Amino acid sequence: xxxxxxxxxxxxxxxxxxxxxxxxxxxxxxxxxxxxxxxxxxxxxxxxxxxxxxxxxxxxxxxxxxxxxxxxxxxxxxxxxxxxxxxxxxxxxxxxxx
Length: 98
Prior knowledge:
The chain is an alpha+beta fold. It has helices at 2-14, 80-83, 86-93, and strands at residues 23-25, 28-31, 34-37, 54-60, 63-70, 75-77. The strands form three sheets. The protein has a two-stranded antiparallel sheet with strand order 1-6. Strands 2-3 form a two-stranded antiparallel sheet. It has a two-stranded antiparallel sheet with strand order 4-5. The chain is flat, with a radius of gyration of 16 Å. The model has no long low-confidence stretch (mean pLDDT 81).
């Protein structure tokens, strides 16, 4: 689903050549009610706790317009192929804390 969604985002950007867009990606795991960053640095100092991630409401005035994850790293990308890049995918798919 993610590759198709990304492809569609970039197709839509190409349909609007008179506008400027910045597309950012982030990856997280939700397991057992805990959020885990998947795009962050591959290692952290021994004994260091992972960065705290919080789900927060995105508001426009008093209205809640969506949700976001505070503390989640984002990476600006310029194509769907860049997101499928082997180096990026290895950072995401091969992360483990243990």
